[in-house]
């Protein structure tokens, strides 16, 4: 229903714009004929609507945001250059938004038009009245440090798409997609981008498949976000920063992946101690070979998983050699 509403709104905007632009060439200039449209639900609407609306803005707000000092009448004159008629009344402006200006969604868009009409080069530069010190986002700083160290460990960084097909995180990984916290795209344009990824491993496997003719071993990693459905989040979904790595060679390379985990924990100053640090716990996961999979626990909480991928997973990604994978959540270490 939401997608249908958005498409109708887009069509209405296009129709209003075309009608307004071509109406000046009509036999009787600036006149249009309306048409009644009946929807399958029985509703009837007359198009084009060519609706006008008004925005009331404060003169002091405009001057403060743009950095100028103009009266209400002067601002009204500036807006005429942007095809916006306005009336000054006291310290406020009443701006009439025509159907040709669908780009004006809020009063701040009118303020932007004032700045354009006044001329950006004519606005006097000022030093901000407050001083702040920029600080890098802690999560991004940690991510950059992890990228550098994993690359020094002999892995090559990859950057894969945030969207993928349902099969990539579902059937190819031997997972039931209905049991995963997946965010689905309501109107995907292609089968390759149907959902937001819940794991970084499928993207790395597709990258390995595209480069399988390269010399072995292929050791790839990625530090990026996955998207998980979360009803407690304002948007219904949340991002989670993760590190994923795969080792593809003639042998499984489990010791390589395990060694990378140990190195990561060493850098994060997490001791190898089940009680006060990190440890491995046997796990059953259909994506991994039975008996070759483990959960990674840090301070008693599961933060990820590593193991040897199941042969069915490998073949579904058009690979034919053993492969081990690691995926951990970095956010608990902030």
From TrEMBL:
<keyword id="KW-0436">Ligase</keyword>
<dbReference type="InterPro" id="IPR045060">
    <property type="entry name" value="Phe-tRNA-ligase_IIc_bsu"/>
</dbReference>
<dbReference type="Pfam" id="PF17759">
    <property type="entry name" value="tRNA_synthFbeta"/>
</dbReference>
<dbReference type="InterPro" id="IPR041616">
    <property type="entry name" value="PheRS_beta_core"/>
</dbReference>
<comment type="subunit">
    <text>Tetramer of two alpha and two beta subunits.</text>
</comment>
<dbReference type="InterPro" id="IPR009061">
    <property type="entry name" value="DNA-bd_dom_put_sf"/>
</dbReference>
<keyword id="KW-0030">Aminoacyl-tRNA synthetase</keyword>
<dbReference type="InterPro" id="IPR020825">
    <property type="entry name" value="Phe-tRNA_synthase-like_B3/B4"/>
</dbReference>
<dbReference type="GO" id="GO:0009328">
    <property type="term" value="C:phenylalanine-tRNA ligase complex"/>
</dbReference>
<protein>
    <recommendedName>
        <fullName>phenylalanine--tRNA ligase</fullName>
        <ecNumber>6.1.1.20</ecNumber>
    </recommendedName>
</protein>
<dbReference type="GO" id="GO:0006432">
    <property type="term" value="P:phenylalanyl-tRNA aminoacylation"/>
</dbReference>
<keyword id="KW-0479">Metal-binding</keyword>
<dbReference type="GO" id="GO:0003723">
    <property type="term" value="F:RNA binding"/>
</dbReference>
<keyword id="KW-0067">ATP-binding</keyword>
<dbReference type="GO" id="GO:0005524">
    <property type="term" value="F:ATP binding"/>
</dbReference>
<keyword id="KW-0460">Magnesium</keyword>
<dbReference type="GO" id="GO:0000287">
    <property type="term" value="F:magnesium ion binding"/>
</dbReference>
<dbReference type="Pfam" id="PF03484">
    <property type="entry name" value="B5"/>
</dbReference>
<dbReference type="InterPro" id="IPR045864">
    <property type="entry name" value="aa-tRNA-synth_II/BPL/LPL"/>
</dbReference>
<dbReference type="GO" id="GO:0004826">
    <property type="term" value="F:phenylalanine-tRNA ligase activity"/>
</dbReference>
<feature type="domain" description="B5">
    <location>
        <begin position="50"/>
        <end position="125"/>
    </location>
</feature>
<keyword id="KW-0648">Protein biosynthesis</keyword>
<keyword id="KW-0547">Nucleotide-binding</keyword>
<dbReference type="InterPro" id="IPR005147">
    <property type="entry name" value="tRNA_synthase_B5-dom"/>
</dbReference>
């Amino acid at each position: 229903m939401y997608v249908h509403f958005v498409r109708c709104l887009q069509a209405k905007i296009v129709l209003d714009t075309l009608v307004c632009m071509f109406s000046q060439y009509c036999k009787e200039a600036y006149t249009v004929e309306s048409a009644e449209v009946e929807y399958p639900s029985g509703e009837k609407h007359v198009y084009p609507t060519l609706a006008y609306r008004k925005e009331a803005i404060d003169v002091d707000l405009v001057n403060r945001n743009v950095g100028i000092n103009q009266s209400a009448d002067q601002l009204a004159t500036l807006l005429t250059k942007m095809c916006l008629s306005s009336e000054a009344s006291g310290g406020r402006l009443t701006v009439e938004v025509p159907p040709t200006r669908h780009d004006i969604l809020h009063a701040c868009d009118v303020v932007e038009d004032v700045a354009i009409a006044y001329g950006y080069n004519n606005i006097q530069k000022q030093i901000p009245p407050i001083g702040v010190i920029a600080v890098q986002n802690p999560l991004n700083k940690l991510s950059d440090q992890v990228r550098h160290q994993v690359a020094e460990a002999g892995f090559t960084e990859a950057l894969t798409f945030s969207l993928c097909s349902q099969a990539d995180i579902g059937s190819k990984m031997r997972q039931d997609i209905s049991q995963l916290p997946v965010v689905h795209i309501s109107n995907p344009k292609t089968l390759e981008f149907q959902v937001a990824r819940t794991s970084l491993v499928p993207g790395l496997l597709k990258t390995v498949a595209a480069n399988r003719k390269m010399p072995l071993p292929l050791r790839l990693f990625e530090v990026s976000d996955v998207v998980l459905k979360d009803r407690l989040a304002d948007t219904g979904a949340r991002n989670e920063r993760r590190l994923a790595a795969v080792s593809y060679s003639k042998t499984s390379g489990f010791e390589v992946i395990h060694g990378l985990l140990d190195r990561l924990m060493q850098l994060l100053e997490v001791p190898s101690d089940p009680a006060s640090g990190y440890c491995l716990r046997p796990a059953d996961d259909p994506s991994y070979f039975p008996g070759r999979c483990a959960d990674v626990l840090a301070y008693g909480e599961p933060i990820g998983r590593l193991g040897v991928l199941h042969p069915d997973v490998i073949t579904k990604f058009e690979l034919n050699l053993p492969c081990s994978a690691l995926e951990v959540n970095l956010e608990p270490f902030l």
